[in-house]
User: Which sequence fits this backbone?
């Protein structure tokens, strides 16, 4: 099925590229703005921070969907064929981008893997790199470089927005560090191990009900291990995620008397919140659980 979809997508691109003008979409011709596509919501939010009103930014993965499982349709690929920029995170976060970038190779579109030069990589190669603000700034730099490459006339606007983001990133990082100094516990129980970047940045330890791959449920032995750890260490809360309900987390919470809080890995957002809003909400949740 994936091969058939890729063939159809490639055919759509070939047809559209034959009549496209240097990869510039019809929308760009109409309003003068470059057309930018992002892989999923986190990349859309960060790209929008830099693009402002200088570029049109569109998201491929539907809001509320998991970027791991998304597969672009022929229609999606046709849109990309007319885009100026495609931005994705990488490190396996969006497995489908391998076939997309291969299909787009040779076109004029600027393709950017924003995680390529992040300063911190976790031991388990957790792809949720943006949960470490210092990594996020490197991703924002990569996004700015991509937009400037496609739209040098607006380089000043992109650079100015990047500088504003840097100041916001610095404040966010400082606020997390200050809060972490007051935590009386450093261990978080999460529905799956998506938070190693966050933990490494601020001296925390995560115990995930599921691993980085959230597709398999834990064994009874693993559940017993987690419940024993919670009881022995007086853990007060389990963290779940906005995009998925975890019946297993609810079961463990019921067995141990834990409360449940939300910790958002910012894979997708159904309420249109930006990166900084979500990260500050996560900080408040951590303060509740660990202070």
Assistant:
């Amino acid at each position: 099925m994936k091969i058939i979809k890729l063939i159809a997508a490639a055919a759509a691109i070939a047809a559209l590229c034959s009549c496209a003008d240097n990869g510039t979409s019809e929308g760009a011709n109409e309003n003068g703005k470059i057309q930018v596509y992002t892989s999923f919501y986190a990349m859309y939010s960060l790209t929008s921070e830099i693009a402002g009103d200088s570029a049109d930014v569109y998201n491929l993965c539907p809001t509320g969907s998991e970027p791991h499982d998304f597969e672009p349709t022929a229609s999606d690929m046709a849109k990309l064929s007319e885009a100026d920029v495609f931005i994705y995170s990488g490190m396996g976060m969006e497995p489908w981008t391998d076939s997309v970038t291969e299909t787009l190779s040779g076109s004029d579109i600027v393709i950017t893997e924003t995680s390529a030069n992040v300063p911190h990589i976790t031991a388990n190669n957790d792809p949720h790199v943006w949960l470490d603000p210092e990594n996020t700034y490197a991703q924002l730099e990569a996004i700015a470089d991509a937009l400037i490459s496609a739209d040098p006339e607006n380089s000043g606007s992109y650079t100015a927005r990047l500088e504003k983001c840097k100041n916001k990133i610095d404040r966010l990082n400082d606020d997390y560090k200050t809060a972490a100094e007051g935590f009386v516990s450093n261990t978080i129980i999460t529905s799956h191990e998506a938070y190693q970047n966050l933990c490494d940045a601020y001296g925390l330890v995560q115990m995930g009900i599921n691993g980085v791959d959230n597709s398999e449920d834990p064994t009874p032995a693993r559940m017993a291990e987690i419940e024993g750890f919670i009881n022995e260490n007086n853990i007060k809360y389990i963290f779940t995620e906005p995009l998925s309900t975890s019946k297993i987390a609810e079961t463990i919470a019921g067995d141990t008397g834990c409360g449940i809080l939300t910790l958002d890995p910012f894979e997708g957002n159904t309420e249109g919140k930006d990166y900084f809003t979500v990260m500050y909400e996560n900080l408040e949740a951590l303060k509740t659980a660990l202070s």
In short: The longest strand covers residues 187-192. DSSP finds eleven helices and eight strands in the chain. The mean pLDDT is 88. Residues 226 and 232 are 10 Å apart (CA to CA).
